[in-house]
Amino acid sequence: MPRDRRDHVLTPRRYDESDVRIRPGKSSRPRTKTRPEHADAESAMVVAVDRGRWGCVLGGDPNRPVVTMRARELGRTPIVVGDDVDIVGDLTGKVDTLARIVRVAERRTVLRRTADDTDPFERVVVANAEQLLIVAALADPPPRTGFVERALVAAYVGGLSPILCLTKSDLADPTDFTASFADLDVPVVLAGQSEDLTELTATLRGKLTALIGHSGVGKSTLVNRLVPDAHRAVGVVSGVGKGRHTSTQSVALPLPSGGWVVDTPGIRSFGLAHISPHDVVAAFSDLADAIEECSRGCTHLGPPADPECALDDLTGDAARRVRAVRGLLEAVRTNDAWQ
Description:
Elements: E1 42-50, E2 53-58, E3 65-70, E4 84-89, E5 99-104, E6 110-113, E7 123-127, E8 131-137, H1 145-158, E9 161-167, H2 175-179, E10 188-190, H3 198-204, E11 208-212, H4 219-226, H5 230-238, E12 251-254, E13 260-263, H6 277-282, H7 285-288, H8 316-333
Parallel strand pairs: 3-5, 8-9, 8-11, 9-10, 11-13
Antiparallel strand pairs: 1-2, 1-4, 2-3, 4-5, 6-7, 12-13
Helix pairs in contact: 1-8
């Protein structure tokens, strides 16, 4: 006789904690926000950057190059040529060794630019440079006053001392061109093929100097004259990639007499979207106090734009400097970088 179908009904199983399996984590080390102090880190200066690797020199000594990466705890902290950093790890500088940048010091000066005057993103070109050598040709191509004015603005606002360096001086007289900047007290040096570089070398000695200029003005030729073994020096100080400096990268080169020059890529335009008229005027100590009396929103350009600008009340040398500074402001306002 067939069995009752109810005999085949299964009773639901009861589970307890012994049936629960916990998957072990990938790491047994607990996570923490505490960062290591790296008390044994050594100071260095960044001299080259290339695809996630930074070439540094320990203690600023070009004979102690080290290739580094950025420590994970720094996240996306930007690191550029000229930055003072602390590094740990293998500091021997041997081939295929890699140290880590664990700290970036506060920058003393910053040379910034944007792609154009509508670009909100600032690009730090060089950090901690004491001087900005603005290289311009007096001929072939003809000098561009607008570009020099914009470079001067970037230098003043960033805390760098500008120097105007004129190449191809054997092809044209520099008098008319330099007259435009006379009231700004910008030092001018000539660096034509026939010019002796003793004065310029003395100006650069012992300092970190950034060089900028349009393509074709002779900047690379000048760098090779200042650093005769520049091509070899690039490989020594960077150790990054193939050790070749290209037109898309900045690199710091050690001067034979002491100090560094930072050779930057040739610049097609110099955007200053991050700079306001107040920033420019405030960079001049003799004008900074006067603009405190200006009304809100004053552009400091003077009449008719600003009929009550306090700068109009200044006299003597200060008044001449006002005219020169307003020329800089006009160059920024009109995006006059090519003239």
